[in-house]
Amino acid sequence: MAASPWAQPQTGGQQSTPVLPAPQAMPDRPQSGPPPAGPPMPPVAPPPRPPRRGIPWLLVGGAVVLLIAAIAATAAITYAVARNTNAPNATPPPAAPTAQVPQFSTAEQDAAKQQLCQVFDVSTRGTMAQGGVRQNGQPNILPLVRTVNTIVAVQNSLMPAVPADVAQVARSFIDANLRLTTAAAGPTATDEVNRLNGVANDATYALAGVCGLPR
């Protein structure tokens, strides 16, 4: 059995120097500097952004736009319905029947004319002797009453069978005498009443001439 190098020598006196094992070679250490690059790290997601304060305004604006669009659509539909309702029908309504002028025989026309002229003659006879419708600037009641009575009598005698030429003269008589009695019974100036009296006399003479009555 070999002796251990660390054991005490058996011989006395002189100590021998112990023999140390040769140091083992250490691996080369890398020089100072940044550590070698490893595999790339995954990207870190940024933190979530806080909600923007302008979003409620965008929502309000969108709601307003939708409301305006709805109102416009409703107005367009209403206009279209009203236009179709008021539009004239494609088929025109049937024309109203033309009023037919009644035809009267010669005997019927002569009878109607004779009745009108007789009423006119009776209602106006003797009125000239009673004076004018106004005397001394005041209404003359009796001639006014008789003139109004004649106007009503002739008006009631204007039947459809009266010939057109006689009816036209009778209407002129009625109009002229109505103007005269209205002016004479009111505050119209005397000169104007005299003028209207002359017009009424002319109309009276015209109707008397159509009827073949003496003036």
Structure, described:
The protein has 5 helices and 2 strands; from the N terminus they run ααββααα. With 215 residues, the chain is an all-alpha fold. The chain has a domain at 106-211. The protein has a two-stranded antiparallel ribbon. Helix 2 (106-124) runs antiparallel to helix 3, helix 3 (141-156) packs antiparallel against helix 4 (164-184) and helix 4 runs antiparallel to helix 5. The model is unreliable at 11-16 (pLDDT under 50).
Briefly summarize what is shown.
With 215 residues, this protein is mainly α. The protein has helices at 55-86, 106-124, 141-156, 164-184, 190-211; strands spanning 134-135, 138-139.
Give a count of the beta strands, DSSP E runs of length 2 or more.
2
For the CA atoms, what is the radius of gyration?
A: 67 Å
End-to-end Cα distance: 198 Å
State the helical fraction.
Answer: 40-55%
Low-confidence stretches: 11-16
Shape: elongated
| Main sheet summary | 2 strands, antiparallel
In spatial order, strands of the major sheet run: 1-2
Number of helices: 5
Overall mean pLDDT stands at 74
Please render the helix and strand layout as text.
Elements: H1 55-86, H2 106-124, E1 134-135, E2 138-139, H3 141-156, H4 164-184, H5 190-211
Helix pairs in contact: 2-3, 3-4, 4-5
What are the main properties of this structure?
215 residues, mainly alpha, 51% helix, 2% strand
